[in-house]
Amino acid sequence: MQAKYGILLMLLLTFSCASAQKITRVNAIKANNYGVIYALPKTSFEVTLVVKKTTYHRGEFYPYAQRYLGIDNPIIENETRFTLENVLVANKGIADKENSFMVEFRGKTVEPFVYLREDGVILTINAETMEEAPVEEFKLPEKSAPLVNPRRFLSQETLMAGSTAKQAELIARQVFDLRRNRSDILSGEAVNMPPDGNAYKMVMEEIDMQEKALTELFSGSVESEYFTVSYTLIPGKEDINGEVIARFSGKLGPVDADNLAGEPVRITLTNKTPAVQLLLNEKELKQLENKLSEGIVYNVPGKADLVIEFQNKVLFNKEVDVVQYGSQDVLARRMFENQKQPIQVHFHSELGAIKQIIQ
To answer: In this predicted structure, what is the pLDDT of residue 109?
Structure first.
């Protein structure tokens, strides 16, 4: 990992939506000299790999699969495989301790107050926080149904058979008997037809379950489940070009970025915000410093292209907001000195940019 990119990668052991941070109202009163300390956020990205784990179980009678049931490609060895199904990216704003400020209101301002997240990031000035639209949670696909023990369906004759080949032959007969019973019920020719719809459903489900379990003694069985692994990426000021955020192995699943047993998952972040050169003299620099120290500083995020690739395929490609690629501006303190109708300001909690100003 190259230090010049200013990247922090941290493996999160579980994937869960971070619970909403607590918020606190801070009043600017005489006791605190009408001042409130707040922080602006910087951008971090939570990159989540959605992984499918597939476990293949060899059937006990797989050598007889083709002979007795016509199965040409039974599973012949136990194996576990991992596949990378999807990549999710969430833009998370974390408190930037290097960008903490104090906003000082004048004593004549009418009851000024600020809402802060528990990490100090500013949310509003002179306004109650608004409920943000809930982020649609990603739901993992359901785990496959647990395997049924097929031996519970074996007849006594099968269990007492003297050879594996004989057992396989008898089990195959059971499979064909189940198929014939199903066919007879479907055609209405069964000797004992189910008396009603519920009984019909239960009988058919039982036949299907037994046939599947017994057939898997020849074909083998497959179990699948999904899980996620998340990484946190905090960009610096520079572009990120094909950095390895993790590695992925078909046999091991997600592994650390320095584990060469897996193939690299690469991330590229390209700044699209034009650079602005400020040519200021000493007096203008002093005016800018005073402006930043006296007003309410907020972020103006930059734009960037975020691309994630694996095995030369693009898994994620989207334009994103990046605070570190942007700039800052200031709301003048005098804007908040209206005694009749104080100005209200709402900030984007993840970006520190202004969302809304209400006068």
So the answer is: 54
